[in-house]
Structures are given as C-alpha cells and as structure tokens.
Amino acid sequence: MHTMNTMLDAAFFRHPVLTVAEELIGKHLVVRGASHMITEVEAYDGPQDLACHASRGRTKRTEPMFGPSGHWYVYLCYGMYWMLNIVTGEEGYPAAVLIRGIRGHCGPGKLTRALGINGQFNALPAIRSTGLWVEDRGERIDVERIRRTPRIGVAYAGEWAAKPYRFVLE
DNA sequence: ACGATGATGAAC
DNA sequence: TTCATCATCGTA
C-alpha cells in the first residue's frame, strides 16, 4: 500500500508549541526537491518563556513569531549561523519550534548551512511555493523513541533553562 | 577553553 | 552611538 506525502499546513501548526514540537519528530523538511527527516527540535513558548526571543517584547526581529502559524522565523545567531524555526499556535501568541537536527546533520547552524537556508525564508509561509515546507511521509515514530531534555545554550533563562523543551529522536 | 563574526536590543 | 549579549561551531 502506498502512503501519500502530506504537506503540514497552518492548521497542523496552530496548536500548543510543545505538542507541535513532539509531533514534528519524524516529519520531513523539504527543500529543493530533497526531504530530510527531522530528528531534533526545541520549543520556545511565549512571552513568559525567558529563553524565547519574544520574552523581550515584540520587535522587528521577533515579529514573525507573533504572526500566524506555519510561517518561518529565521534569524542569524553569533553572526554566522541561521536558525530555522516554524511558528506555532494562535496568531498574536509568540511561539515557535527550532529545527535543531535532521537525519545526517546534527546542530541547527550546520543543517541550515548544509541545506542553503538563510534569512530569505524569514516570515514566509511553509508551503510548496516558497520552496521550504514540512511533510508527513507516513513514518510512524513510537513516542518511546523520543527523549526530552533541557534546551541547549539557554542557561541565562533562569528556571526556564531547566524545562524539558528539547525533543530528540533516539 | 576560546575566537570567529555581525545583528539585536537596551542603555546612554 | 556605544555596548553587552548571543537558541553555534570548529579548533585547541
């Protein structure tokens, strides 16, 4: 039996960021005709989350996170690495999932470099016509294979640094 | 352990 | 306009 590849749309992403983050494990990032299984993500959850950029308010940079779900939030980190995030939840509530790993590439800065993803995708919707989207390719991921840990590189975020908002496929 | 490398946001 | 800070990574 053949399974259709389904593009994940805005409705898929219009849910609590922790829910979307876990469900993104095992889905596929599609760019330039190639698909890559997502193996590691982190959730950033709203203005109260001190590790979330939006906790410092609505600014030019964080604007996409306040927009509708299913759009990309891409920003430059440490002057060298592009971080790829997908906006989740209701419009007006700033939350996003950082794509930290795909099969064959570990690390958020390495995967964007390998796939040629940069700021050109910021604020664009994750649909076929933009050239960067997410698909369910019918792979079943047992939740037992998903490990939760604190997020990486956010030690400054007080109690929020310890929350298990990182999801990794074993 | 540290430097590369530049945008960001807050302070001044 | 300056300044500290950074959701990282390669090299040592």
Proportion of beta-strand residues:
25-35%
Unreliable segments of 5+ consecutive residues: none
Oligomerization state: single chain
Structural class: alpha+beta
Count of individual domains: 1
The CATH class turns out to be Alpha Beta
Question: In CATH, what is the homologous superfamily?
Answer: Methylpurine-DNA glycosylase (MPG)
Radius of gyration: 15 Å
CATH architecture: Roll
Quickly count the helices: 4
Helix/strand order, N-terminal first: EHHEEHEEEEHEEE
What does this structure look like?
There is one protein chain. This protein is of the alpha+beta class and 170 residues long. The chain has a single domain (6-169), classed as Methylpurine-DNA glycosylase (MPG) (3-methyladenine DNA Glycosylase, Chain A, Roll). The protein is built from 4 helices and 10 strands. It has helices spanning 10-13, 17-24, 63-66, 108-115; strands at residues 6-7, 28-31, 34-45, 72-77, 81-87, 95-102, 105-106, 132-136, 146-149, 166-169. Strands 1, 2, 3, 4, 5, 6, 7, 8, 9 and 10 form a 10-stranded antiparallel beta sheet that branches. A hairpin with a 7-residue loop joins strand 5 and strand 6 (95-102). The longest helix is centred in the N-terminal third of the chain and has 8 residues, at 17-24. The chain is globular, with a radius of gyration of 15 Å. The mean pLDDT is 97. It binds a DNA duplex (12 and 12 nucleotides) through residues 42, 44, 51-53, 56-57, 59-61, 75-81, 83, 85, 98, 100, 107-110, 151-154, 156-157.
